[in-house]
Structure to design on (193 residues):
């Protein structure tokens, strides 16, 4: 498990439901032992019009949240360069994911669920449900193994890594680094005892 290659997934959307319009997909390969492999990543901005044409939802509250966010996040959200049609982006991501990799995302009911819903609706075979893993639950377990409460583990990581930028690829890399940092923290503790 320590050296197994995993995928960390993050998406940015314009809604909070499982049919939300996806504006970017970011992912990186990682192992618990070595952390994220920043030389092997996936990042694709998605054309919003293609999401709307596919019947995906845009939520006004989420749009307002983005508008109130950082200028960098807003530019990332609205920039017109390098945007792919949603179905093409989903197919490219599915092709990029290694066949046997487990796919982690931040919570069991949003990123992976939203991506699977989009894939199903657009005729792209989703990643098998049994390969999906929850980043938050893994963080909580690793925090407890490090003799920290889940809240202490999150505070430790925030101090170590800083705030999340709300950029799909940067968030995926950071989330992989969080698992790696806690894993190594416990690993170091085991070697010292």
């Amino acid at each position: 498990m320590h050296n197994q290659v995993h995928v960390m997934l993050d998406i940015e959307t314009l809604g909070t439901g499982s049919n939300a319009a996806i504006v970017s997909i970011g992912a990186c390969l990682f192992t618990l032992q070595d952390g994220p492999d920043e030389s092997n990543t996936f990042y694709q901005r998605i054309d919003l019009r293609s999401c709307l044409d596919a019947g995906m939802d845009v939520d006004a509250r989420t749009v307002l949240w983005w508008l109130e966010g950082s200028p960098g996040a807003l530019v990332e959200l609205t920039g017109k360069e390098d945007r792919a049609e949603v179905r093409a982006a989903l197919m490219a991501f599915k092709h990029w994911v290694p066949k046997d990799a487990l796919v982690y995302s931040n919570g069991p009911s949003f990123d992976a669920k939203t991506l699977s819903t989009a894939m199903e609706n657009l005729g792209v075979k989703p990643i098998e449900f049994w390969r999906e893993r929850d980043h938050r639950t893994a963080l909580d377990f690793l925090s407890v193994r490090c003799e920290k409460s889940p809240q202490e583990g999150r505070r430790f990581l925030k101090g170590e890594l800083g705030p999340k930028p709300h950029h799909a690829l940067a968030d995926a890399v950071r989330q992989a680094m969080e698992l790696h940092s806690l894993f190594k923290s416990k690993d170091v503790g085991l070697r010292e005892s």
In short: Strands lie at 6-13, 22-31, 35-46, 83-84, 102-105, 132-134. The longest helix spans residues 168-192. Residues 188-193 have pLDDT under 50 and may be disordered.
